[in-house]
Amino acid sequence: MIELKGKTAFITGAAGGIGLGIAQALTREGAAVVLADIDGVEVEKAAATLRDQGAKALALHFDATDPAAWEDAKAQAERTFGPVRILCSNAGAFGASGPVESIEPKLWRWLFAINADAHLHAARTFLPELKASGDEAHIVNTISMAGIFAAPMAGAYNATKFAALGLSMTLRNELIGTKIGVSALCPGYVATRLAKTSLLNQPREQPADAAATEAFASALRQGMSPGRIGPRVVEAIKANEFYIFPHQSYRPVVEAVHHRQLASFNHQADPADQDDISALLSII
Ligand SMILES: NC(=O)c1ccc[n+]([C@@H]2O[C@H](COP(=O)([O-])OP(=O)(O)OC[C@H]3O[C@@H](n4cnc5c(N)ncnc54)[C@H](O)[C@@H]3O)[C@@H](O)[C@H]2O)c1
Description:
Elements: E1 8-12, H1 17-28, E2 32-37, H2 40-52, E3 57-61, H3 67-81, E4 84-89, H4 105-133, E5 137-142, H5 155-174, E6 180-185, H6 194-201, H7 210-221, H8 226-239, E7 243-244, H9 251-264, H10 278-281
Parallel strand pairs: 1-2, 1-4, 2-3, 4-5, 5-6, 6-7
The structure holds nicotinamide-adenine-dinucleotide.
Nicotinamide-adenine-dinucleotide (NAD) is lined by residues 12-13, 15-19, 37-39, 62-65, 90-93, 114, 142, 144, 187, 189-190, 192-194, 197, 201, 220, 223.
């Protein structure tokens, strides 16, 4: 079990919401935390609050879509607290994209940059040194239930989260046999400012659909407290669990998705199919 006390954690999108919830839970375990966020003002306030509580916390004003910013942030984090061993790639955004045929390419590319590409930048920045160190470490990528099933009218967001889950699962499988664990955090609704922070940052050709934005904000307000997500993430890091589904209520959704997939195997295309998948099974 990984020891968190004295470790340095780097958390993106940590000015509030789920990222700050994870940071708080990690500081309670004795980790030093680097909070990195595009909102320089809010992230500084968040770090100051943690420092007031006696934690070691550094705020960085940073854009997770910029690969060069990752290199600078890693250097600053290490200069302040030493090598990063817990990496939480959590920054993200939502975009109500409407029916698929109306998805704006600009919105699509922006959502991919923050919700999918940023996880790649995170791995490219931190993994070489993590692997070389041979130390125990853990990576948590924040995905969503939207990476497991695809609700209508959010095609761009869903696509980014499916991409991010695929990357995370690949990472997990590539790192088997090392001391680096990987988790994919897949929450349902959490009471955060995601509707607001997403609107602040998104480029659009057309104004965002006000009714869809309000419906999303309203669903968020009914969501789970980020204060409950953080301790669950810490528990999963310690136990090296890949999937983190904090919302029990979504269990039937996961079951239904898997049921539909399995049902399709009842209809064979070629009864002679005999692909050898034993090697695959050993890494799943
Ligand atoms: N709130 C939910 O219901 C929910 C559910 C499932 C998944 N998620 C995911 O959780 C993650 C955190 O979201 P949240 O709900 O805590 O909302 P949030 O708005 O509190 O947190 C997102 C943070 O990311 C920051 N951010 C946005 N773009 C950035 C960039 N380019 N570089 C650095 N920081 C950037 C924002 O400033 C914000 O502080 C996201 O990936 C989101 O998709 C949220």
